[in-house]
Amino acid sequence: MRECFELQDTDAGGRIGELTVPRAGVTVETPALLPVINPNLDTISPRRLADEFGAEILITNSYIIYNTDDVRERALSEGLHEVLDFPGAIMTDSGSFQLSEYGEITVTTEEILQFQADIGSDIGTPVDIPTPPDVSREQARDELETTKDRLEIAEGVDVGEMLINAPVQGSTYPDLREEASRHADATDLDVFPVGAVVPLMNDYRYDDMIDVVAAAKRGLGADAPVHLFGAGHPMMFALAVAMGCDLFDSAAYALYARDDRYLTVRGTQHLEDIEYFPCSCPVCIEHSPEEVRSLSNKEREKTLAAHNLHVTFGEIRRIKQAIRAGNLLELVEERARAHPTMLDGYRTLLDHADQLEAADPVSKGAFFYTSHESARRPEVLRHRERLERLSVPDTLFLTEGDSDGPETYEDAWRVKPPFGPFPRALSKSYPLTAEVPDRIDDGALEAAAEGVARLVEENPGTEFGLGHLGWPAAVLEGVPDSVETIDLTKEHR
Ligand SMILES: [Zn+2]
Question: Could you confirm whether 93 is annotated as catalytic?
């Protein structure tokens, strides 16, 4: 049992958790955002991050510190918390990315972890190999073996109370990602970054990103905190949280600000294109876009970075509230409408509905059917599986309307799209209390027909009838031929 992470609440694959960081003497509530701090730049000071934005944890790069003489000396003598002036938890990255980009690794796993411990990091990172997407399987496998070796070395390094990251690699091969996460989970390391996904996000490949995260999650226990490494755009947080990510780090707030880009939960806008700020953070209340445009470069960058952070932290809070209220997937559906590639990401998430179902609470507030994708949510899947365990009479009428059907049937069950059939006694229980639009789409009807087919299949000895409210022929094709179907809208005339 991993002691540093405790789950408080779940919704779909999303969780609210408490990450205990012993060396910092703090607990961090997840989902959490770690702003990235470059010790050589001061866009927004760590003290401001804590006081003004409520940051409980940040991340900085130990490689940059290692290579900057004055910062290194101060960090070694005074400690990182003192140098950065930050009261929360500090995670350090090993700089694997820089090391892999700019040449040979000149420090060993032991040295770099020891250095992170020496400068006072609370969560350190070994030097793994961040294998990019789409490389050959051979390369992904070879590099994964090296990463696994490094994690095993990291287990043996005495770093006191410092927690250690166990990066999960494996490129875009789901089986390798799963193998990597199983291996990492079996070590006594603490936090699990899903690595090298930045190229996927830069190319808007949210579908592939979700497949990679889903694979990594399959090898990790529920007590494993998962960090989507390098993910900092608030647009995709809800999607990633729903797949089970707990930690995000954002360099985006500062990098985008430097480039006059303004973050929103629906995407990125360029400052020169904005006439009205669609935000109520202090920055956007106090300034008009025109005023921000007229600021000096340095001031404009700081001002935009502050807005970018406000919107990013705001989205994290909105996600936490959605998990508490049990409507995280409704939020994901909303976000999925911002960009077609986000919709691909959401549809891919639903491909993993069986995996999400395992963690999804049995009962929540109310199920809102807000798009035909809703028909593929884990709750619909679970309902269908639940049908297998119910006993049915020899003859049973399934009715979408008020009619209980011909008298020849012993009993009548309700049919509600997208769930399908269920005994009346269940109609007040979640998710069958769902709010469904009157103008129902074929996606919901098809899902209901699948539910009918499943029940018929499970009970070959029973004679079924189905009373539906004008289902189109294409939907009725999903209902087995043995079922007597009656269009109740025609019956009433
Ligand atoms: Zn704002």
Answer: yes
